[in-house]
From TrEMBL:
UniProt-annotated location(s): Cytoplasm
SUPFAM superfamilies the UniProt entry points to: PLP-dependent transferases
Biological classification of the source: Bacteria, Pseudomonadati, Pseudomonadota, Betaproteobacteria, Neisseriales
Database matches in PANTHER family: GLUTAMATE-1-SEMIALDEHYDE 2,1-AMINOMUTASE, GLUTAMATE-1-SEMIALDEHYDE 2,1-AMINOMUTASE 1, CHLOROPLASTIC-RELATED
One cellular-component annotation, GO: cytoplasm
UniProt-recorded name of the protein: Glutamate-1-semialdehyde 2,1-aminomutase
Keywords, ordered alphabetically: Cytoplasm, Isomerase, Porphyrin biosynthesis, Pyridoxal phosphate
Organism per entry: Deefgea piscis
Chief localisation class: cytoplasm
Pathway annotation: Porphyrin-containing compound metabolism; protoporphyrin-IX biosynthesis; 5-aminolevulinate from L-glutamyl-tRNA(Glu): step 2/2
Origin superkingdom: Bacteria
Complex formation: Homodimer.
Amino acid sequence: MTTRNEQLFESAKKHIPGGVNSPVRAFGSVGGTPCFFTKGEGAYVWDADGKKYIDYVGSWGPLILGHAHPKVIDAVIDTAKNGMSFGAPTEAEVTIADVLCEMLPSLEQVRLVSSGTEATMSAIRLARGFTGRDKLIKFEGCYHGHADSLLVKAGSGLLTFGNPSSAGVPAAVAADTIVLPYNDVAALEALFAEQGSEIAAIIVEPIAGNMNMVQPSAQFVAAMRNLTMQHGAVLIYDEVMTGFRVGLQCTQGLHGVTPDLTCLGKVVGGGMPLAAFGGRADIMGYLAPLGPVYQAGTLSGNPVAVAAGLATLAEIRQDGFFAKLSAQTAKLVAGLNELGKDHGLCAQSVGGMFGVYFAEVVPTSFADVMASDRTRFNAFFHAMLDQGIYLAPSAFEAGFVSAAHSDADIDATLAAAKIALSRC
Ligand SMILES: *Cc1c(COP(=O)(O)O)cnc(C)c1O
C-alpha cells in the first residue's frame, strides 16, 4: 500500500526536479521516501501520514525554540498585518542591527540579506573589494552556501587548486578558490608563506557542521587569525549554522577570536528567510551606497522575517537559556556515547548542536568523517525514523536540539537508539 508521503513524492517529481527544492531533502543518501511535513509544534513534527516524530533537524538549525513558538508566531502575524514588504527602511531593521552588534562584539556594522548563501557570497565580494585581491581559502568539507566560487571541494594532496564540484561553475571562478584540509596548520602556513600577498580571505565554519560536526583545534583557530592578520587578508567566520546555536556569542565567544567579518543565518531568522553579514566598520564601509562593493536585495531586511528574528533573539537572551539547552544536548550525547560504546558509535555536542558518528573516535577532519561507516548510519537512520525519531537524512549533517526538547523526549530518543543499534 502506498503511503501519502509516497504519493506526494511521486506527484512532486512531475513539476519539481527530483521532487524537492533542496537536494538533501530527497533522502538520496539514506534511501527511502522523504517525509512531507504538515505540522510542527515544539520538539515534534507530523508527516503527511499523520505520524509524529521527535525532530532533531529543526529546519536545519533555525528552530532553536522549537516549532511554532507562540512568541515567534505572534510576532510574524502581528507584523504581517501591517504589510509584508516595503523595499524601504523600517525601524525593526535598525533594532535588529543594534541587537546583533550588542550581542556579538566583533560586529561594528551589519547588513541584512535573505539567505546564508547571500551572506557568504556578499562577504567574499566585500573581502575581495576591500583587499583588492582575488584568492580565497576554504577548507575541505566546509559548506558556505551555493555561490559559484564556494562550490569547490578538495582533490587529493595537501594543497589543491579548486576544481568545481558542481557542473555549471566556470573553471576560472573556481581557480581562485584554494581548498585546504580542515585543522591542518602546516598546510595553511605553507600556503601563506608562498602566496600570502594574494590571499583576499579565509572563509571557515569555525565549528564545521556540514560534514557532520567537526571541531577545530586551538592551534588551527589561532593560525587562521594570526596568518590573516600578518598578511592583510580578511578572516570570515561563517557562523550561519553556529551563530546563536553554540552560544550567545557564537563560536567566536567560545574560542575568544575576533574575526573581521561574520556571516549569520538560520537561528537569526527564527525560521524565516533572514541572514546577515557584518564586522569591522572599515571593511563594511566598502559596501554600496558608501563604497564601491555592490550588494543589494529586494526583500533584504524584510519586516516579517526581522520580526521572527527579533522574537527568537529575545528568547535566547533570557537568563540560563544556553546553559539549559547545552545541558539537554549534552544529556542526549552522553546517553548515545554510553549506548554506542559497544557498537562503534560516538557523539559530541557544543551548545545546541551535536554530531553522531559510526566511528571509534570523534572525527577531526573531512577524511575522518569520510572514513566513518555510512552504511551503518543509513540503517540507524531508518531504524530511528521507524520509531518516530527524525534525524538529518545524511551522515554528513550535524543535529540540533531545541529548547522544546524535554527530558522525556531525550529518554524516548535514547530508548529508540538502543533498539536501533541492536538492529544495525
Ligand atoms: C546553511 C549554511 C549556509 C547556507 O545558508 P542558506 O540559507 O541555505 O543559503 C552557509 N553556511 C553555512 C555554514 C551553513 O550551515
